[in-house]
Amino acid sequence: MQLPVANTYDYISVSGYGWSGSSAVVDILHEFKSCFLPGTEFRVIKDPYGIDDLFHAVVVKGGGDIAIKDFLSYMKFLDQPRRKISMGLSYCKHFNGSFWPATEKFISSLVSFEYEEDWWMFDFKMGWAKSIFKRIVNKIFRILHSDFRMSQKAYYTNVDEQKFYELARQYIDDMFTPLISSDEKHVILDQAVSLFNYDVQLNYFRDAKLIVVDRDPRDNYADLIGTNYSLGREFAKNRSVDKYIKMYQDTRSGQNELKNDPRVLFLRFEDIVFHYEETLKLIADFVGLDMSDHVHKREFFNPDISIKNVGMWKNILSKSEVDAITSELSDFLYIR
């Protein structure tokens, strides 16, 4: 595959609040020939044990050994193929083999040296049975007056904030550069950045913007009930509208900051459906897309089909649920 000249593509992260409609923007961008999509959510940064957790361990707390091990374990999970008998997110397939070598290179650049260490925190991480076994083995060798001790390989790292950002940017570039063709200028990443720490997490990219999509809370709640997954399971089982309202308020508390950030485009799902052409232009202008590249228009997102997802609450929610959401979340309702 033909490689681009360095720094000729940027990153566009598309995020939502969970069932808030962000996949509509991902689908629209998929229709442009100048956009590259890896075909899976990009979980490397914001997930537990991801880059952001590693940053806090290495830079903020000043120690990274256990965080590096957790990071490598989670990246291995992301990389391994998803099969009936094994878990994973198949990054090995989606990144055509470039993900794990880039990960190893990143850790190698972050680590100053490796050493052997025996620490009680290792006992905590390995669990009760293994730690007891290690203690017994070490006691036997002490009785035998041997210097042998069961220990683990440890990583020493000491980088400042700016250096970490530089290494993280190179890491992400190393993943994608082998995949990008010469006419692809934008890497579209689904759910790559947390909306609660986006201002830090955008720094892990060389050149990045963020598109955020939100949705009427009544439809958002109705969709969560229908999924019966994650928090939706609680809402579906107990119809916990009070908990939903609390969650919605908490997760949207920083929206004004998002809307005022020039790196962020804030959209409503309903506008994508009802004002498709105008919203399409907003997206294109924000990303820097040439409309002549929109070669698969309406093939992945068709507003005439997605309109069924607007107002679905009318057939799902009870009157008491609608009244509660309307009363407590009136500022977030979509009024056409």
* Relative helix content: 40-55%
The helix-and-strand class reads alpha/beta
The poorly predicted ranges are: 1-5
Number of helices: 17
- State the total count of DSSP E strands: 7
Radius of gyration: 24 Å
What's the mean pLDDT score? 90
How far the N terminus sits from the C terminus, by CA atoms, comes to 47 Å
Could you state the order of secondary-structure elements as H and E?
A: EHEHHHHEHHEHEHEHHHHEHHHH
Largest sheet: 5 strands, parallel
Shape: globular
- In terms of DSSP E residues, the strand content is 5-15%
With strands numbered from the N-terminus, the spatial order across the biggest sheet is 2-5-1-6-7
Task: Describe the structure concisely.
Helix content is 48%, strand content 10%. It is of the alpha/beta class.
Question: What is the strand and helix layout of this fold?
Answer:
Elements: E1 10-15, H1 22-30, E2 35-36, H2 51-60, H3 65-79, H4 91-94, H5 99-110, E3 113-117, H6 120-126, H7 128-143, E4 152-156, H8 161-176, E5 186-190, H9 198-201, E6 208-214, H10 217-227, H11 231-238, H12 241-251, H13 255-259, E7 264-268, H14 269-274, H15 276-287, H16 303-306, H17 319-328
Parallel strand pairs: 1-5, 1-6, 2-5, 6-7
Antiparallel strand pairs: 3-4
Describe this protein's structure.
The protein has 336 residues and is α/β, with parallel strands linked by helices. The chain has 17 helices and 7 strands. The strands form 2 sheets. The protein has a 5-stranded parallel beta sheet with strand order 2-5-1-6-7. Helix 2 runs antiparallel to helix 3, helix 5 runs antiparallel to helix 8 and helix 6 packs across helix 7.
